[in-house]
Amino acid sequence: MKELRALVREALAEDIGQGDITTNATIPADARCQAWLIAKEEGVLSGMKPFSVVFETLEAAIREWGALPDGTRFKKGDKLAGFQGKTRAILTGERVALNFVQRLSGIATMTARFKEAVDGLSTRLCDTRKTTPLMRKLEKEAVLHGGGTNHRYALFDGVLIKENHITAAGGIRQAVERALSGTHHLMKIGIEVSKLDEFEEAVEAGADAIMLDNMGVEEVRKAVEIAHGKKVVLEASGNVTLQCVRAIAETGVDLISVGMLTHSAPAVDLSLVIRNV
């Protein structure tokens, strides 16, 4: 919560600067209003916490707060939240609050669409580290709200040997062996490969999880066959779209990581409307 409040303060400072000239010039200091967050299109809700923290930070004296929980599916015209508060504070914080909830709901909505595309299959959908700087925690929570799962949070909580690591280490076997010797016995070793021969080398080297990066569906299917009976987690990744995700999942991979869940999800169109009280 401390990190969230700091993020909200920075976002408000960026937008308000020396003060909200328009609102302060036109709205009496003691005015209060009723506000509603309204959906202008269908989606999945995420971001209600930063939305509310914006108005808490501006000391809007919020009363009669009511909101749908994150993860709720909504339709165009639905009221997602309603509350009363100081009009100046609500108008000043409106844009920042909407920016948070629209962005995060967009991620949840995109994730839900991908989840629906693989309905009935056991493959899990997960995010990546391709997140907005300083928004990672909120964006990964939004993926969960949409029905997805989280990949590693950051560099400190999991080993994933990427292409440049392999190059710098001198090869797949060298990279895996160094990772095994450089971490404790409870840490799993993941590695990225882009060809079947690299995949076989990674399996033989002792990798616990292998990311099949930008491999075609038939190559992924072949990797699944090769790995059958072996204790290795298979993850497909790279250029995954709604049009191809089911075909990839049908190969039997354990995971599909989708960068566009966070780096390309369009914001959901929401609106804040008020009336005087």
Give a brief rundown of this model.
This protein is an alpha/beta fold and 277 residues long. The protein has helices spanning 2-16, 21-26, 48-57, 87-117, 136-145, 163-169, 172-182, 196-205, 217-227, 245-249, 260-263, and strands spanning 32-39, 43-44, 63-67, 73-74, 79-86, 124-126, 159-161, 189-193, 209-213, 233-237, 255-257, 270-276. The mean pLDDT is 97.
Q: Top keywords for this entry?
A:
20% strand; 4-stranded antiparallel beta sheet; 6-stranded parallel beta sheet; Aldehyde Oxidoreductase, domain 3; 2 domains
Explain this structure.
The protein is of the alpha/beta class and 277 residues long. The protein folds into 2 domains: 2-112 and 266-276, Aldehyde Oxidoreductase, domain 3, CATH 3.90.1170; 115-263, Alpha-Beta Barrel (TIM Barrel), CATH 3.20.20. 43% of the residues lie in helices and 20% in strands. It has 11 helices and 12 strands. The protein has helices at 2-16, 21-26, 48-57, 87-117, 136-145, 163-169, 172-182, 196-205, 217-227, 245-249, 260-263, and strands spanning 32-39, 43-44, 63-67, 73-74, 79-86, 124-126, 159-161, 189-193, 209-213, 233-237, 255-257, 270-276. The strands form 3 sheets. The chain has a 6-stranded parallel sheet with strand order 6-11-10-9-8-7. Strands 3-5-1-12 form a 4-stranded antiparallel sheet, with helices on one face. Helix 4 crosses helix 5 (136-145). The longest helix has 31 residues, at 87-117. 38% of the residues are buried.
